[in-house]
Amino acid sequence: MLAVGRAVHGALTAAVVLATVGPLLLPEPKPWWIIGLGLLASVPVWWRKRAPIAVAVLVGAAMSVLVTWEKPFLPFGPLLAVYTIADLSPSWKRLAAIPAIVAVVGASLVLPGENDETFRLVGTAFAAAYALGTSVRASRSRTAELAERARRREQEHIAAAAEERTRIARDMHDIVTHSVGLMVVQAEAGPVVVRSDPDRAEEVFDAIADTGRGALAELRGVLTALRTPGESLFQPRLANLPTLIERSGLAVASTTVGIPRPVAESVEAAVYRIVQEALTNVRKHAGADAVHLTLAWRESLTVEIADNGRGPGDSSGYGLAGMRERAMACGGTLKAGARQNGGFVVKAEFPLE
């Protein structure tokens, strides 16, 4: 692309020099100083991109002197210089150049006593050169703007894809760790129940099957959403919390403070997943025999899961990080740590509009 630009630049310079100096050499060469003025009015356009104003002044002055003795068909050097000013110069230089161009061109036509037709021809040529330069500048700016928009859209798509991958990873983590963890606990209790209470063993194995079927259904929903464009993932609601608590295998006391209000589906899903992950952690690590879940509806929705277990343990997994990400994604906050009287507490707060 750069090589093409240089070739075009060189071709324009050569064309201007030939169109300006050629008539001075053929059919008979003009005096050397006239040929020198022709070269001075054309060759400097090679440097027009580096110094548009300086080149315009130089070729314009040379052409103004040249037309006193020789009148070219058109002042090609000054025309290209004016085009370059309109195309490449800053706004204030472009505006300042307009009256200067008008004054110089007018003087170069008035002093030799040109007729009205020449005034119209030359005036139209300079106006067209300036307009063409402005048009090219606007087209380049438009192209750059479109490229920037495309770049931003691409970044937004990448960010959205990354966010979706993170959300799916959190859902997969919550579904698998909760369901499989619960199945492991129930399966470990199965042999004990079989020996001590055969009648209850059937309930334990039914619970394992129900948990497995629920996990498969949720995973199937995740896979369907991944395979089907535009398909959204299943989002659990607050109404699903009682079932979650019932299947957790823990002694959970649930309390609701205040009057429940409608909230966004994303907030409901975040609350459900946070409670799900917190209960999973209690079952896997805490060794607790009592868990208290509180939903407080005030200026904000506060969700608290507190247990009387061993307190903080290994925090190297993704559970707490995933809970914080879910809360932050909905504009909320999440804190987790040891309770003063022993045990562990997870507390999330979501703003209510």
UniProtKB/TrEMBL annotation:
Bilayer-crossing regions: 7-25, 31-47, 54-74
Enzyme Commission number(s) from the entry: 2.7.13.3
UniProt superkingdom: Bacteria
Class of this enzyme: transferase
InterPro entries: DUF7134 (IPR055558), HATPase_C_sf (IPR036890), HATPase_dom (IPR003594), Sensor_HK_TwoCompSys (IPR050482), Sig_transdc_His_kin_sub3_dim/P (IPR011712)
Domain Histidine kinase/HSP90-like ATPase, residue spans: 266-352
Catalytic activity line of the entry: ATP + protein L-histidine = ADP + protein N-phospho-L-histidine
CDD domains recorded: HATPase_UhpB-NarQ-NarX-like (cd16917)
Alphabetical keyword list: ATP-binding, Kinase, Membrane, Nucleotide-binding, Phosphoprotein, Transferase, Transmembrane, Transmembrane helix, Two-component regulatory system
Molecular-function GO terms, alphabetical: ATP binding; phosphorelay sensor kinase activity; protein dimerization activity
Xref: Pfam families: DUF7134, HATPase_c, HisKA_3
Any one cellular-component term (Gene Ontology): membrane
PANTHER family (UniProt xref): NITRATE/NITRITE SENSOR PROTEIN NARX-RELATED, NITRATE_NITRITE SENSOR PROTEIN NARQ
Identification of the protein by name: histidine kinase
Organism: Acrocarpospora corrugata
Lineage of origin: Bacteria, Bacillati, Actinomycetota, Actinomycetes, Streptosporangiales
